Amino acid sequence: MASGESYVSEFVLNPDLASCYNPAFFWRNSMAMQPSARLDKLREQLAKVQGRIAKEEGVRRTAALEEISSLMAQYGLTVADIGVKGKRGPAKKTKAGAKKPVAVKYQDPKTGATWSGRGREPLWIKGKRRERFLIA
Length: 136
Known about the structure:
The protein is flat, with a radius of gyration of 38 Å. The mean pLDDT is 78. The longest helix is centred in the middle third of the chain and has 41 residues, at 35-75. By secondary structure, it is mainly α. The chain contains 5 helices and 2 strands; from the N terminus they run αααααββ.
């Protein structure tokens, strides 16, 4: 390039070079052309962060256990005194609305089919007197 020429004149004369210096060109080629590489890099960063979190949790858990052990020794406490059961982790939750099975009240003498008296009436009892099907 001659001393009097500038980069601007090169852009004007060669439109292919102008696109290379366009910020959108670089973003498009670096970000959109290799999504799997970006995703791999993000997964790698996530794994590192999760590892650091696990390490920090372990350090804090160890410190907490040491403090608890020293307090128990200081006051002469045992696990039974604290009321801790032998399980680790949170207690298992039961399903909300889980109900016990209902006792059977009615039985078809022909087929032996049963019904508790709740829900839709079975065809063998529908429109008939229920007293005939009561289980004694």
